């Protein structure tokens, strides 16, 4: 019982680790640089992002635990479904450093487009294993759809500065 609880918490907390680090490392870029970017009228308010990501990371983390548990832990059957999950999590964590840290909107866009594909692949691989886990990923995919559209819009509306130009 104790080990199960530890695994449940571990899997559920894991996505938050990279999310928190991404925020912590890039937090100084948000009030300055990000606020100056041209954004569409439908851009969610800044205060909504940490709330949304807390809910989404919790859901996806718990979903990954359900899949891991249903597959009997780290087995050969878990390689693809949890490998896809791990790959999408890595791309999720890579987006803030591209966007905020490097201010590379094109790289952030490429990252999120691959992320979308990996999340869809993860969900497809999970469907036969655990339908609840798959459903727990639906809000994440919905938020990513909005975030992808937002990234595209910001990339198009904010041409990147040429080296040597002041901001």
Q: How would you describe what is shown here?
A:
With 167 residues, the chain is mainly alpha-helical. It is built from 7 helices and no strands. It is elongated and about 50 Å long. InterPro entries: TspO/MBR-related_sf, TspO_MBR. It comes from Ciccaba nigrolineata. It is found in: Membrane.
Core attributes:
mainly alpha; single chain; transmembrane; 7 helices; 167 residues; Ferritin; TSPO protein
Detail the topology: elements first, then pairings.
Elements: H1 2-26, H2 30-36, H3 48-70, H4 79-101, H5 105-127, H6 131-136, H7 138-157
Keywords: Membrane, Transmembrane, Transmembrane helix
Family: Belongs to the TspO/BZRP family.
Protein name: TSPO protein
- Uncertain segments are none
Tally of helical segments: 7
Series of H and E elements: HHHHHHH
Distance between the termini: 56 Å
Percent strand: under 5%
Shape: elongated
CATH-assigned homologous superfamily: TspO/MBR protein
CATH topology title: Ferritin
Which whole number gives the mean pLDDT? 88
Radius of gyration, whole Å: 17 Å
* Secondary-structure-derived class: mainly alpha
Q: How many structural units, i.e. domains?
A: 1
Membrane topology: Multi-pass membrane protein
Family: Belongs to the TspO/BZRP family.
Keywords: Membrane, Transmembrane, Transmembrane helix
Main location: membrane
Quick recap of the structure?
This is TSPO protein. The chain has 167 residues and is mainly α. The chain has helices at 2-26, 30-36, 48-70, 79-101, 105-127, 131-136, 138-157.
